[in-house]
Structure formats: C-alpha cells, structure tokens
Amino acid sequence: MYDSFGENITETTSAIAEANNAIFAINGDYYGFRDTGIVIRNGVVFRDEGARQGLAFYRDGTVKVYDETSTTAEQLLADGVWNTLSFGPSLLDNGEIAAGIEDVEVDTNFGNHSIQGEQPRTAVGIIDENHLVFVVVDGRSPGYSAGVTMTGLAEIMQGLGATTAYNIDGGGSSTMYFNGGLVNNPLGENKERGTSDILYIAG
Asked: Taking 80 as the threshold, does the pLDDT of residue 163 lie above it?
C-alpha cells in the first residue's frame, strides 16, 4: 500500500512515516484528490498534467517553485528533479509575500474549493541550500486554534527566515509527526485524516 499510486489510496501521516522509519514527517500534497499536476516521486513520473505552481526537489538539494504549465515531467527529470509537489500557491518570492495568494482556489476532482480565511495549514520553506523549514498550523478548533490565513502563513514563513515558501494540503490533513508521535492536534481532535503522501526525514 505504501508504495502504491492511485486516487483512493490513503493512510495517516503517522502510519506512512512509521512504515518508512521516518523520524519526522508532515502531510504531503494529497495528489489523489485531483487528476492534474506533475507528480514525480523518487525519480519516477506518475502524472504529467501541468496545471499550477509546483515545488521541485532536485537531486543536488536545490528546491524551487516552478510553473507546471511551462514544462514537462521528462524535462524536469532531465534537469535533475527527483521529487515534486503539486498544490500551492507559492507564498514567498525572494523573501517577499507573493501577490494574489488570498485569491487562490484549489482545483480537485470535485470542483474548485476556496482555501481562504483562517484554516489549518501546512507549508514547506527554503531558508538556504539544504536548509528547509516545515510548518503546520492547527485550526477549526474553537478555544484552541482558529487557524491562519494564507497571508498569515506567508508571514510565519518569512519570520522563520524562508526566502521561498510553498503551501501544501491543509485543513484536516495538516499533520506533523516526530519521533513516534503527533506534534500537532489535527482539528483539535488529536485524530489524523488519511492522505495520499507525506514528506519525511528518515534516520
């Protein structure tokens, strides 16, 4: 299951992390929730339907936001890309908050969905070469955490020193795992929702 690809294959972030001996993990882009985007995992192309801003992880450690509609999966592989995420939007451009991030909608197999307002969020930031920062913000939990707007998330990433930052799947999917347990409290219920994929660091 953990090495399968498909729209209806899901498992919790913790379960996928434990199956891969991960020390740290966050939820990924939930590629199974849509049938567009460029999906590359460990150098293997699973989908090549450019539709939005993507995040590319290169073999040399470089991480960049790119326009999926201006390239192909094969070209990305030729350029040294090893993994991609397809969600967005980009939050920071050269350290400055990106324009228009409060107007972005997420396209899914069930139509477009607004991701605005205060919501649980997950993001990846790049501070320097081989220096990443991962942020998960809880939300939708009265008395605990309301969540954060897209601009607020960008400000958090900016405050942590990121020059590039990228939003990935949030809401009930937003999960951070470390050393065998949950760090955050998803939706204030301490209960994880299944997702298609994760980002993890193994020992």
From this structure: yes
pLDDT digits (tens, 9 = 90+) for 81-104: 999 999 999 999 999 999 999 998
CA pair distance 77, 142, nearest whole angstrom: 45
162 vs 111: CA distance, rounded Å: 32
Q: Are 140 and 147 in contact (CB under 8 A)?
A: yes
- In three-state secondary structure terms, 43 is coil
Q: Tell me, yes or no, whether 29 lies in a domain.
A: yes
Find the domain containing 129 and state its range.
13-33+87-98+114-202
Residue 67's closest CA among 83, 86, 82, 81?
86
Cis peptide before 89 (omega within 30 of 0): yes
The model carries a pTM of 0.91
Within 10 angstroms of residue 116's Cβ, the number of other Cβ atoms is 14
- b/e map of 150-185 (b: 16 or more CB within 10 Å)? beebbebbbeeebebbbbbbbbbbbbbbeeeebebe
